[in-house]
Write a structure and sequence with these properties.
The protein is α/β, with parallel strands linked by helices. It is built from 13 helices and 20 strands. A ten-stranded mixed sheet has the order 2-1-3-12-11-4-5-10-8-9, with helices on both faces. Strands 17-16-18-15-19-20 form a six-stranded antiparallel sheet, covered by helices on one side. The chain has a two-stranded antiparallel ribbon with strand order 6-7. Strand 11 and strand 12 form a beta hairpin.
Length: 515
């Protein structure tokens, strides 16, 4: 699709304000107006950017519910990818994903397909103008954006058991941890906190924690402090004492949860924007949904998308325009011109709808807040501004391949006869070829044979761990195939296998709970 205009917006003047350091050629920008309240808040946001003198050449694309309903299960027209490849920047309003029907999350599709590995969500309180119990809160959540359970790989194995695979990679961990430290360094942040659950998930979350520590050791010379917290107590501390945190880096699922917590306790999810950053492409969006129940009512708060657009402007090299928009927005909040979702601080002077709020921000172009911390111009072109997201491309450290040896196999069995692990073990041991031995049976991860407890509740899904009779020799793939052939021939219903490897002599698999 061709560019709409070679100036900021249709009907806008191609001349930037006098003395504007961002007076450059218009930056191509792909815009998706979304569903529900999306078109309203996008129109409001673009109107404010136009008034501030943003230099943008917009390419509109259609994504979301209408595209889904046309039978495109990804939610994005094939032609939209052409625009994204040209502009490399997307400003996206919330979209609606229809329930059922095999529709995939468009957000996940975009993040993974475009390599948007870092999700950045700044959450700052606007006390006393927006109600919050945390007056000094100013935290940035840097969330890994492509891996973890969001790979969406799920299977049903038995009548009672389904699984979701949690995939964590060393390159993915290193990229997001390096990004978090670079973000902290370039934005004057003092501390980076890693949150995982590696006391339980010692391999997946353990890898994330180890890589964080490796990267952290390189940034001590910049005076950046580091710490690690288990995600459950970390989330509790974030909700209770958010001002103790500065930058938090965490895997995908945890980051999704705690960034919503942080946004809500700072004042409102409706105020929070986010950036999705890749090596080549970036996407900017509000963190809230499409709210179809209030669509068309002119009551939605456009602030989340507007703050995303501010991050976008800094990302594309128009920091002065970003500062004008940000300061006008802060001045509007200070003046008590509020949408209904942020009424309650006692500072509201006027309750307005979407269009009137955009008018108020537009009218305050050139104003600065009197009490809240304002956005300030930076001599480095905006790299040091709060929320600046453009980072030098992140390089992943090459590593030599480990010495890998196959030492066993976990065979997952659908067994529902009497749910007696001893009987299952007896049946399996009678079938074994000489190269492998049955070491353990677990149910839902808990060891039930040998020496299991009779109180343990069992389902119809059993993990049977077979290991090499001679651990030093290990086994080969033929031994695994032979074992499975014997199990199949005798009616054992195996539903999944996982090979057990050592890497440089270290086990690449977890022990059973109670083993």
């Amino acid at each position: 699709m061709p560019l709409l205009e070679s100036h900021p917006f249709p009907g806008a003047s191609p001349v930037s304000p006098v003395g504007d350091p961002d007076a450059v050629a218009p930056v191509p920008l792909t815009v998706a107006r979304g569903d529900g309240i999306g078109p309203e808040i996008m129109d409001a946001t673009l109107r404010i950017l136009r008034a501030a003198g943003a230099r943008l050449a917009i390419e509109p694309i259609e994504v979301g519910e209408k595209v889904y309903r046309r039978g495109i299960t990804s939610g994005i027209e094939p032609s939209a990818w052409e625009s994204l490849r040209r502009t490399r920047v997307l400003l996206k309003a919330p979209i609606t994903t229809p329930q059922g029907g095999g529709y995939k999350s468009l957000n996940v599709t975009l993040r993974k397909a475009l390599g948007l590995f870092a999700n950045v969500r700044p959450c700052r309180s606007l006390h006393p103008f927006v109600a919050t119990r945390h007056e000094r809160m100013d935290v940035v959540i840097v969330r890994e954006n492509e891996e973890d359970t969001y790979a969406g790989i799920e299977h049903r194995h038995t009548d009672e058991v389904v699984q979701c695979l949690k995939l964590i990679t060393r390159p993915g961990c290193e990229r997001i941890c390096r990004y978090a430290f670079e973000y902290a360094r370039r934005n004057g942040r003092r501390r980076v906190t890693c949150m995982t659950k590696d006391n339980i998930m010692k391999l997946t979350d353990g890898l994330f924690h180890r890589v964080f520590d490796e990267v952290a050791s390189e940034y001590g010379r910049f005076g950046i402090e580091t710490d690690h917290m288990i995600i459950d107590i970390g989330a509790a501390r974030l909700a209770d004492e958010p001002d103790r945190f500065d930058v938090i880096v965490t895997p995908n699922l945890y980051g999704d949860i705690i960034s919503d917590i942080a946004a809500e306790i700072s004042g409102s999810v409706g105020l929070a924007g986010s950036a999705n950053i890749g090596q080549d492409v970036a996407m900017f969006e509000a963190i809230h949904g499409s709210a179809p129940d209030i669509a068309g009512a002119d009551i939605a708060n456009p602030s989340g998308l507007l703050m995303s657009a501010v991050m976008m402007l800094r990302h594309v090299g128009q920091p002065a325009v970003a500062d004008r928009v940000h300061n006008a927005w802060l001045a509007t909040i200070e003046d008590g011109v509020h949408t209904r979702d942020i009424v309650g601080s006692g500072r509201t002077t006027k309750v307005v709808g979407t269009r009137a709020f955009a008018d108020a921000v537009t009218d305050r172009q050139g104003n600065r807040p009197k009490h809240l911390r304002s956005a300030e111009p930076m001599s480095d072109g905006g790299a040091g501004n709060p929320d600046a997201t453009r980072i030098t491309p992140i390089a992943v450290t090459p590593r030599p391949r480990a010495r890998k040896q196959l030492v066993g196999v976990d065979v997952f069995v659908h067994h529902d006869a009497d749910r007696d692990p001893a009987a299952l073990a007896d049946q399996l041991c009678r079938l074994l070829p000489g190269t492998v031995q049955l070491k353990m049976i677990t149910n839902r991860g808990v060891k039930v044979w040998p020496e299991g407890l009779p109180e343990t509740f069992c389902t119809d899904h059993w993990r049977c761990r077979f290991t090499a009779t001679d651990p030093k020799q290990g086994i080969d793939h033929d031994a695994v195939v032979g074992l499975l052939a014997v199990l199949a021939a005798t009616g054992v219903d195996f539903v999944k296998t996982e090979h057990l490897y050592t890497f440089d002599g270290q086990p690449g698999y977890s022990m059973g709970q109670g083993e």
